Amino acid sequence: MQQLQPTQAVALCAAKGTAPLLLDVREDWEVAVAAIRIDGVAASHIPMGRIPERLAELDPEQPVVCICHHGMRSAQVAHFLERQGFATVYNLAGGIDAWSEQVDATVPRY
Fold first, then answer.
1. What CATH code is carried by the domain that includes residue 7?
2. pLDDT at position 37, please?
3. Considering its fold, how many domains does the chain have in total?
4. Global confidence as pTM
5. What is the per-residue DSSP string for the chain?
6. Domain housing 42
7. Which of the residues 64, 65, 68, 89 is marked catalytic?
8. 107 located within any domain
C-alpha cells in the first residue's frame, strides 16, 4: 500500500491510463456530511465493516484509492485489499479532512 497526499491523488486521477476507483470506507452519515467528487473518476462507498462481504463489487486490477475521515480506517482497508490480491492500492493520507484543507475547501470538515 502506498500513501498518497491529497494533491498526489488529484494528479493520479488526472493522469492518462487506468483511472483509480475512489473507495470511500466511511459510514453513511459521514458521506452525507462530506464527500469527494472528481469529474470523470469512479467512486464507490462501501463502509469498512462491509468490505469483506462486498469485495466482489471491486475490480482487483483497477487501482484503488481508499478514503476515510483521517486515513486510519482506509489504511486498514488498503492492507486488506492487498492481502486479497488487489494489484494497486493507495491510502489517502490524512483522509477527507486533509483533502478539505489541501485540495477543496468546499468539502466540509467534521
1. 3.40.250.10
2. 84
3. 1
4. 0.94
5. -EEE-HHHHHHHHHSSSSPPEEEE-S-HHHHHH-----TT--EEE--GGGHHHHGGGS-TTS-EEEE-SSSHHHHHHHHHHHHTT-S-EEEETTHHHHHHHHT-TTSPP-
6. 2-102
7. 68
8. no
